[in-house]
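hey so i finaly got around to running the thing on Branched-chain-amino-acid aminotransferase from Desulfobacca acetoxidans. pasting the sequence first so u can double check i didnt mess up the copy paste, my clipboard has been acting weird all day
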Amino acid sequence: MVDKAKFIWLDGKFIPWDQAQVHILTHTLHYGLGVFEGVRAYQCANGRTAIFRLPEHTRRLFDSAHILQMEIPFSEDDINQACIEALRQNDQKEAYLRPLIFIGDGAMGLHPQNNPIRVAVITWVWGAYLGDEGLLSGIRLKTSSFTRHHVNVMMTSAKGVGNYVNSILAKREVTKAGYDEALLLDTAGYVAEASGENIFMVKNGIIKTPPSTSILPGITRDCVIVIAKDLGIPIQEARFSRDDLYIADEAFLSGTAAEITPVRELDDRRIGTGKPGPITKKIQETYFDAVHGKKPRYDSWLTYV
Ligand code: PMP
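ok and heres what it spat out for the 3d tokens, dont ask me to read them lol
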């Protein structure tokens, strides 16, 4: 259960949490066309709260809306301000933020011409998405029988609401079988991403991550690329298969919710030593330093509240 905060920003106004309700004919509820973001705010070492990579998340929100031809009736700056103000109004020092763009009620059917485009920013407190133990010791990943979207089936560069049916099917399948997270392969059979995270493997000191062809181009993925370069660790965007992962030295997932989570097992094969490896640990540590404002090099990623 999400713990209620005081207010939700809906269509330009803060309203009490319990009053943030929509009509049953809300178009997105029926047909799944909507876009959203997942953003985190952390309490920094200096005691202040900062939203991590807020302009980049808002930019991706607008890109997603552009791809899906939804006209957001606010500016990027309005959304950034709504995120900042939501944390202030809710007295939240650390939180997960969920900007959501959806089609409101009006016409039904697949061509809703004049239905309002509605906008919400919801904030709540959310711990480690794949668990504290997962962050520390690594998670068990399982390849799902569900394939990641083909790029001409869903718009994979958009963080579209409906895209997540595929993720939910995969996640349910593997959690029911006792694993922590699902790995999805692309339609050619190569590794794409996890149900809500990008994936990285390490072999002989080189990090590899799938190219952004059928994946959501993650903002945390971008952080990993920047951090790896800064640390002098070679990193490549390259296709690889699930058996490349079986024999990798290390593997990890990246995502706003999951942060940097080591993978200790895939399909019942131990990866490397079965414990988070040195490169994974270094990337994870640097990422956590960055989000907490402990590394001046990454201060431009912080929007103080
Ligand atoms: N892939 C998918 C399918 C996701 O849902 C997410 C989480 N938004 C990611 C990758 C990682 O993206 P980010 O690092 O921007 O959170």
